[in-house]
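My main concern about presentation is that the manuscript never shows what a single data entry looks like. For the editor and my fellow referees, an illustration may be useful. For illustration, here is how one protein appears when written out as sequence plus structure tokens:

***
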Amino acid sequence: MFNGIHEECGVFGIYSRTPANVAHSVFYGLYALQHRGQESCGIVVNDCGVFSYHKGLGLVNEVFNNENLSSLPKGKIAIGHCRYSTTGNLTAANIQPIVVRHIKGPMAIAHNGNLINALDVRREYELRGAIFHSTSDTEVISYAITEARLTSGSIQEALEKAMSKIRGAYSLVIMSAKKLIAARDPDGFRPLCIGTLPDGGYVVASESCALDSVGAEYLRDVLPGEIVVINDEGLTSIKTNCKKKGTLCVFEFVYFARPDSVIGGCSVHNARIRAGKFLAKEHPVDADIVIGVPDSGLDAALGYSLESGIPYGVGFIKNRYVGRTFIQPVQGMREDSVRIKLNVIKKVVEGKRVVLVDDSIVRGTTSGRIVDLIRSAGAKEVHMRISSPPFISPCYFGTDIDSKDKLIACQMSIPEITKHIGADTLGYLSTENVIRIAEDADTGFCRGCFTGEYPIDVPDEMPKDKFEQKLVE
């Protein structure tokens, strides 16, 4: 899916038993998490309590090179972040991790998620004289922790207090002078896992695929509401805020996470296969071939094929060298950018009835162009199948779905959408079955963007840019 739904970011942290080139390890971890955020990235290294960092706008391999990675010192602790903004402008001030130098000691923080009360908490601090340098809610979290630090015996105690003040989605990786700390909000909206290193150290990351990239072995997920503290004495857990099973965003399994990741004990790849099987049961059709839209539609397409008995085929070749900054100098090229990123293998679809599987339809523009590509290659019929329900409500927890007026399912009926995108038929996965695709995962699920019902109370309206709008009023 192109120009569609985006997730906020990926976080990564490492604690080595001995000083090492931890910046390189974080680099590999961020590379594995690049799919979670492509706007900016950064790495902070702790060398005996002295923090050094490098950050920049762009992809991981654009921001980092051998020279600037080698300029970062060896150390035992380091954290990193790759970002896609759902709150906060795309500016250098918003690049994470955020580094705070405080009377109680330095702190660096990386955040995945979105606070729903960030504006109110920020205003409270500003009225007391606080000065903010960014427009991201991550800085709000850092203020909540540093304020609590003044009356706390440790940074983990301060974080425990701060968690009672902030509301919404947050998976955090925090570094102090001597500790690596990981935490999830009590509802567990965003994933966060722990891995062990061969030397007895630890790694924390948004997804298990990042553990694999540095040779770490998956240990477990951080529990919803849990604070994990890692230091020379090992790993300890604080579960004061662990009060429920959690409601992970189900779209992690549909689209966000890499298929080779394991979340809540469930394989993302297997979950997408199951989504395709459910689709085949809910929306069967007579067809000659099933193909998926790269990349997140491929596993679901395979599942549809396995369940329906319709042969699976590779219908698209994706241009791996077209990045997010691909230059489109004229309007015609901008409108046909899908043709540059995807090319149909004509012999696979020509003269055939095609089942085309994708993860979602947001505005319908991209889906229409992809259907047109298949028809132009000679397909006799195109039956669109979507491995998630229709989006009918905004997301408040770190996904870039910000208003109903931009969602095609809020403006058109399914028959109207079918006609709009040029398909012969269209079928979405049901809201009942979307939470069954990962039913062996040790978590509940949030499906608010599909139902309008959320695990916690949300604002009446909170579009993506409201944080900036309110700050300049």
